[in-house]
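Ticket #4471: structure output looks truncated?

Reporter: J.K.
Steps to reproduce: submitted the chain below (129 residues) through the standard prediction queue, then opened the result file.
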Amino acid sequence: MIGDSFKLLIQLETIVEEKVRKMTVLLIWTWVVKPEKQREHKRLLTRFQEYVKKNPKTFKELKSMRFFTQTFGGISGAYVEHAEFESLSGLASCLARASKDKGYIKIDQEWMSLLDPATLTSNLYTVVT
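Returned output as attached by the reporter:
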């Protein structure tokens, strides 16, 4: 799943980066956690944030990352991850390194086991002005 998204990002990078060298890029993930897995999920989010802080070389292009819960509209109680990068190439580089990092892979696999896979979405936004 992450691999397919990564391949698409590389293709987008070559198209867009030729025209715009630096721009803010937001990668937004949304998902719903299985009801019986809420406690584990909360611990995993904390562990993931700590992992990112302890591995700055792996995530060097990541400018910011925050987690939210949806409170109005859409699916109430859904989780939202907001990850900010300076460029599409920075996002692609970060994902390439993370996809080879054993610690990240382990966290990602645990995370996937805690959520309802039918609810997982990812969207990529770039600044217009």
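Triage note (M.O.): checked the attachment and the full token line is present. The two ends are 31 Å apart (CA to CA).
Status: closed, working as intended.
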